[in-house]
């Protein structure tokens, strides 16, 4: 016998209603559909469930297609890892197809882009190279990139354009795999946003702090100007940058708004391995108002970005 004075509540008298009358978040009309053998990308995407990320992905595709038709800005911020996992040919194809109207990289991006164009390979074994002090000491990477940046300052251009011009003018064997060379060829604005001391070219003899700072600042102001074109349904993609590009995007956006430009009706998209604080807050949430929307997709870049590219082309 319990010694508690409080007695348990009885379920007798609970009010119920018919299940069919209840509003539900999931209905069979939203379910995924089995795909047929040899289905194309469009059929595959249409087979996805209209639930959570499946619904968001289909919505994203339609809005990007509409933005392209309306000639709105499609600005892609690319982390260096995206280049390291072999996605440059996919991104170059999207540039040629009009799905990328501006490109932003962090400082490491130019390193991998150069090494691929120059040598057809990149991404050293940091752990083994670090032990004997040879990490980051490839001569051409440090010498050629720093010299290109230093020359660019003489022409009063930013890092993105300077490296793009340098690579496009070279006779390197794999220049067709270079994002920056392609951007220069297609006259697509490319900006590079550097944090001093984070990249291997910053400790080579040819480095000039004043050149790095001035050229990267030029690119920041250019990037800010490009953001004006987001208004009216444009897109900013943050692909694989956890810190630098989300911070640059947020600061450039507030600068443009402070100068009196209306940038409210646009979309942001993040593709990353997991939820990161800055991409979530600075890209997918804070910048977009009730007129826009932020998307966040989780998955390996080497799978998600080719899927995105194939889908965009199939619906275009």
| CATH H-level superfamily | Deoxyhypusine synthase
* Beta strands, count: 6
Helix content: 40-55%
Figure out the total of helices. Answer: 13
List its traits.
6 strands; alpha/beta; 13 helices; six-stranded parallel beta sheet; Deoxyhypusine Synthase; 316 residues; elongated; 48% helix
Describe what this molecule looks like in 3D.
The structure is a single chain. The protein is of the alpha/beta class. The protein is 48% helix and 10% strand. It is built from 13 helices and six strands. It has helices at 41-47, 52-69, 80-84, 88-96, 107-119, 126-131, 139-154, 159-169, 179-186, 209-227, 244-258, 277-285, 301-315, and strands spanning 74-78, 102-106, 190-193, 234-239, 266-272, 293-298. Strands 3-2-1-4-5-6 form a six-stranded parallel sheet, with helices on both faces. β4, α11 and β5 (266-272) form a beta-alpha-beta unit. α8 (159-169) packs across α9, α10 crosses α11 and α11 runs parallel beside α12 (277-285). The termini are far apart.
Quick overview:
The chain is of the alpha/beta class and 316 residues long.
Q: What's the SSE blueprint?
A:
Elements: H1 41-47, H2 52-69, E1 74-78, H3 80-84, H4 88-96, E2 102-106, H5 107-119, H6 126-131, H7 139-154, H8 159-169, H9 179-186, E3 190-193, H10 209-227, E4 234-239, H11 244-258, E5 266-272, H12 277-285, E6 293-298, H13 301-315
